Amino acid sequence: MSDARPAAGLRVALFATCVNDTMFPGTPIATLRLLERLGAQVEFPTQQTCCGQIFTNTGYYDDALPSVRTYVEAFEDYDYIVGPSGSCVGSVRDQHPILARYAKNPALEQAVARTSARTYDLTELLVDVIGVTDVGAYFPHRVTYHPTCHSLRITRVGDRPYRLLKEVRGMTLIDLPAADECCGFGGTFSMKNSDTSVAMASDKARNVSSTGAEYVVAGDNSCLLNIGGVLDRQRAGVQAIHLAEVLAHTEEDAS
Amino acid sequence: MSPRRTPAPPPGELRDSLPFPKAAKIELANVQQRANLRHATHTIRAKRAQVVGELDDWEALRTAGAQIKDRVLRNLDDYLEQLEASLTAAGATVHWARDAEEANRIVIDLVRATGQDEVVKVKSMATQEIELNEALERAGIAAWETDLAELIVQLGHDRPSHILVPAIHRNRSEVREIFLEEMGTYGEAAPPDLDDEPAHLAAASRSHLREKFLRAKVAVSGANFAVAETGTLVVVESEGNGRMCLTLPETLISVVGIEKIVPTVEDLEVYLQLLPRSSTGERMNPYTSMWTGTTPGDGPQDVHVVLLDNGRTTALADEVGRKALRCIRCSACLNICPVYERVGGHAYGSVYPGPIGAILTPQLRGLGSKVDRSLPFASSLCGACYDVCPVKIPIPELLVHLRHKVVQEKAAHHEVHAETAAMKATSWIFADSRRMEAALKLPSFGGKVLRGRLNHFGPLPYPASLWTTARDVPVPPSESFRDWWARERGGQR
């Protein structure tokens, strides 16, 4: 009997991202389990490292190029590449072409054009490619969702995360005030302009706390590191959690 | 030395300002300013969103606004010659200024030729940029700002902190105090019983300014647009004070950046929709003044236009950076910016604050000063500025582009520091996943000793303190994802 699951027959390469790989392994593990539960065949090309965004956004184009090359080599054989980070996926799609042009390397430009076009945010892969919004998740908590800047304005995932969250059983989703305002992370901005970054993060944390949610959910662990960092320092009693981990969670995990 | 005619601005050169992070730290502690800015930016954001939402063709207008300016910039040499010919044919005199010094000297000479020792001013960013008021003051000529907010800034011995709303950092009780304290020294005094009702404050300024409007023989303006085809200059404003300056005096001198050109009058159709909705959140601004050279018996008969470069051709030579020259000075990017909202305009060390200032100032002034090198980094790259820009300037892309230029500039001066070394080392590690795996095995990476006893680090020493002063940080996990993958799925790719 053939596999009737929605992602059956889909071969996907998991782009874990360096931050998740080293600091938040629970997120790529959740992404993997979620996609496999939906029937996808998920592979992790181990030669992958980083999207290079930390170099690019700090102005070190030459230091970003090795990461661009590594990305292309790791993922060039795949039609679907998925990353649980709006920011890293945004960097691959928006900045890799700029860097390849900067390198004046037409072969790299061609290769980048392929890998960039085939790189998806997790919510895009679920909603557009696999065609599901109900992924069978169960998360019996009050949560609020922070739509990260790069999900909103670079990858432009729109309402996909909300459509996925609305189908999660047992969950109460509470609107976050001033949701579309930046949390102040901004990569090296959080260190170079730490006072301004903290001022922004404090306002975001205050808005999160005002919802009374137990969890603040987002599609990017970097932003959650920032928002959660303030909430933890305040002992606010709100836990930061990645969207993939919420969507991977089922009744079996709860029992 | 003769006494000053006009209120002195704060001492020091803008270019010598503190680098952005240090200036921001000071501004962030100004609670009154933060409250004023939060209120003002949120109000204007909501108004803009509402009126922009009314137009079905907003995105098409933005695209047209970007493309017309791009065409002008690609063919700027031709359009400038066309503008000069049109202006001359219409009875205006055209002057060319390479930089601020040349522009200021031209204006001083023109004012002196009239025999006058004072001018009234229409709100103008170009004259702020060249610091014309102080140049005139040094030449013994008093320059009176007539835009209400510019008047508040001038009387307050202050600097503008916003492109459109220069006194946005002040609230009405502060304005009342400035008027009571200063107006009498420089003209008609404010009524002693002045309260902080906006209508009463406006009435005090009207009375104070009226005396100057009726006396002035020379006016200085900028222009929002300069039409190459006809030589028509356009000033868009809210108060009508600009219109007074543009019509009553005998001599009118306009300082206009060379990027202000639009090819035809028809092109104004696009910008006169984009600008008011993006700036004040109005469908149409109250006053749009247009003049084409001189008209016998009507308005100023001695009309001069100073076309200003001052770094614009340098920006034009950079194919990425030149997109900043599309700017029509609407301020939508300032109003939406979460950084600007919290630190205000003074931290940017420039007459152009906010996201547009962070990409324009370092191009106009170069990367020589500490503040100019810090400006491209004064953003979290959240992208909100691009979404509201009426001429679709990809501000985040330009910020990153200019960060690269700062890094190149530092490398050219052999300024190797900790960041350069850290970036090089990390880049080497990320060039090969085997190096990354080896780095993850170093004992310094994980908190292996601490793990099990706590989940988060509290305050840590510098440089980690930049993060941990106000934010906890999780203890690294005991196993990376790639180690988990090797253990669980070993053998698979």
UniProtKB/TrEMBL annotation, chain A:
<dbReference type="Pfam" id="PF02754">
    <property type="entry name" value="CCG"/>
</dbReference>
<feature type="domain" description="Cysteine-rich">
    <location>
        <begin position="143"/>
        <end position="227"/>
    </location>
</feature>
<protein>
    <submittedName>
        <fullName>Glycolate oxidase</fullName>
    </submittedName>
</protein>
<dbReference type="InterPro" id="IPR004017">
    <property type="entry name" value="Cys_rich_dom"/>
</dbReference>
<feature type="domain" description="Cysteine-rich">
    <location>
        <begin position="12"/>
        <end position="91"/>
    </location>
</feature>
Automatic annotation (TrEMBL), chain B:
<keyword id="KW-0479">Metal-binding</keyword>
<dbReference type="InterPro" id="IPR017896">
    <property type="entry name" value="4Fe4S_Fe-S-bd"/>
</dbReference>
<dbReference type="Pfam" id="PF02589">
    <property type="entry name" value="LUD_dom"/>
</dbReference>
<dbReference type="InterPro" id="IPR024185">
    <property type="entry name" value="FTHF_cligase-like_sf"/>
</dbReference>
<dbReference type="InterPro" id="IPR024569">
    <property type="entry name" value="LutB_C"/>
</dbReference>
<feature type="domain" description="LUD">
    <location>
        <begin position="80"/>
        <end position="308"/>
    </location>
</feature>
<dbReference type="Pfam" id="PF11870">
    <property type="entry name" value="LutB_C"/>
</dbReference>
<dbReference type="InterPro" id="IPR004452">
    <property type="entry name" value="LutB/LldF"/>
</dbReference>
<keyword id="KW-0408">Iron</keyword>
<keyword id="KW-0249">Electron transport</keyword>
<keyword id="KW-0411">Iron-sulfur</keyword>
<dbReference type="InterPro" id="IPR037171">
    <property type="entry name" value="NagB/RpiA_transferase-like"/>
</dbReference>
<feature type="domain" description="Lactate utilization protein B C-terminal">
    <location>
        <begin position="404"/>
        <end position="488"/>
    </location>
</feature>
<feature type="domain" description="4Fe-4S ferredoxin-type">
    <location>
        <begin position="324"/>
        <end position="393"/>
    </location>
</feature>
<dbReference type="InterPro" id="IPR017900">
    <property type="entry name" value="4Fe4S_Fe_S_CS"/>
</dbReference>
<dbReference type="InterPro" id="IPR003741">
    <property type="entry name" value="LUD_dom"/>
</dbReference>
<keyword id="KW-0677">Repeat</keyword>
<keyword id="KW-0813">Transport</keyword>
<protein>
    <submittedName>
        <fullName>Iron-sulfur cluster-binding protein</fullName>
    </submittedName>
</protein>
<dbReference type="Pfam" id="PF13183">
    <property type="entry name" value="Fer4_8"/>
</dbReference>
<dbReference type="InterPro" id="IPR009051">
    <property type="entry name" value="Helical_ferredxn"/>
</dbReference>
<keyword id="KW-0004">4Fe-4S</keyword>
